[in-house]
Design goal:
The structure holds two protein chains of two kinds.
Chain A: H1 3-20, H2 27-40, H3 47-80
Chain B: E1 2-7, E2 10-12, E3 34-36, H1 38-52, E4 56-65, H2 69-79, E5 83-88, H3 91-95, H4 99-112, E6 117-121, H5 132-140, E7 144-153, E8 157-164, E9 167-174, E10 177-181, H6 193-199, E11 204-208, H7 240-249
Parallel strand pairs in B: 1-4, 1-6, 4-5, 5-11, 6-10, 7-10
Antiparallel strand pairs in B: 2-3, 7-8, 8-9
Helix pairs in contact in B: 2-6, 4-5
The chains are: A mainly alpha, B alpha/beta.
Chain lengths: 85, 253
């Protein structure tokens, strides 16, 4: 990992770990998978590729947040509002 | 510019399968994941949005409960509340804490803090009481907007759209008022890690219910808490005659 991206990558990893605490299949599943993905790409040296991957990571963060929101909204809707549909 | 007081409750997380204690005195809460009541998240979000639209000057989050209630308050602060008040209620008193007590606490605090608007979730997902907003409004003698799915500021006060049976109702209220948030009011934001870290620096005041002059004597007694009835297993019948016979037996034909 080249130094300029070190902070961004670490931040991304921490953010994802934090999000993993609410993962439906459990934190451990999430953490292992996350670690695998990060370590697989840890040898990458091309700065443009690293930037693309960080962008993708940030996109995944947004997706997970949206997933949690939707999951909660649906659970509430099913419990309190869905009488006939 | 209004000051908004938001009530938040720490409840068992919505995704947890709730188990009843063997002695039927309540549900198992030890070692179970807790989080902020989803309807209260919506209430916090609405208050924070009001602040972002410059309709509110300050958002104060309030929670009544044991020391862990502070975690819930941190979440509210991370979502954008300015400061928090933790009303400490622990042990036996917390077990019998009812909406009437919370309403009295909220009413007292909104007078002390000179709040112009109180927003709470319409109900908590643990006891489903749906009483706190109504009682708070009554105690303060303020107008109430319950089951709110839309709030707009109009010159003299608020225009509120309420969810009622089979439709929507639009009402106008003056300020100060008490609102209770319904599911469709907004989409609460996620409390991100950096915001939770920043929230640790925001002020949190701790008060005891006694100092507010609120009597926490229980008004009700829990007799028994039971699991909902389990669905009976079905059975396969060999032919139509047996089916008809069984239906007659069960009184369905």
């Amino acid at each position: 990992m080249s130094q300029p991206h070190r902070k961004a990558v670490l931040n991304l990893y921490k953010t994802l770990l934090f999000l993993g605490k609410d993962w439906p299949q459990g934190y451990d599943v999430f953490r292992k998978r996350l670690h695998k993905v990060f370590s697989r790409n840890s040898e990458e040296t091309d700065p443009t590729k690293i930037t693309t991957m960080i962008k993708h990571g940030e996109f995944v963060v947004k997706e997970i947040e949206a997933l949690y929101k939707l999951k909660k909204y649906r659970a509430m809707k099913r419990r309190y509002y869905d009488d006939n549909n | 510019m209004a000051r908004v007081l938001v009530g938040v409750k720490r409840v068992i997380d919505y995704a947890v399968k709730v188990r009843v204690k063997p002695d039927k005195s309540g549900v198992v809460t030890d070692g179970v994941k807790h989080s902020m009541n989803p309807f209260d998240e919506i209430a916090v979000e609405e208050a924070v949005r009001m602040k972002e639209k410059k309709l509110a000057s300050e958002v104060i989050a309030v929670s009544c409960g044991p020391a862990q209630a502070q975690e819930t308050l941190r979440t509210a602060l991370a979502m954008g509340a300015d400061r928090a008040i933790h009303v400490e209620v622990a042990g036996k008193e917390y077990e019998t804490l009812q909406p009437i007590h919370v309403a009295k606490i909220l009413a007292k605090l909104s007078q002390d803090e000179k709040a112009d608007l109180v927003i709470v979730g319409k109900q908590a997902i643990d006891d489903d009481s749906n009483q706190t907003a109504q009682m708070t409004a009554a105690l303060l003698d303020w107008p109430q907007g319950t089951f709110v799915s839309k709030v707009e500021k109009t010159d003299a006060g608020l225009t509120i759209t309420r969810e009622i049976d089979g439709g929507l109702e639009t009402i106008k209220t003056k300020i100060p008022a008490v609102l209770s948030a319904d599911l469709r009011l907004n989409e609460p934001r996620y409390a991100t890690l950096p915001n939770i870290m920043k929230a640790k620096k925001k002020p949190m005041k701790k008060v005891a219910a006694k100092d507010l002059g609120v009597d926490l004597t229980p008004r009700i007694k829990v007799i028994s808490v039971e699991d909902p009835p389990v669905r009976q297993a079905g059975s396969v019948v060999p032919d139509v005659d047996t089916l008809v016979a069984k239906l007659k037996e069960g009184g369905h034909v």
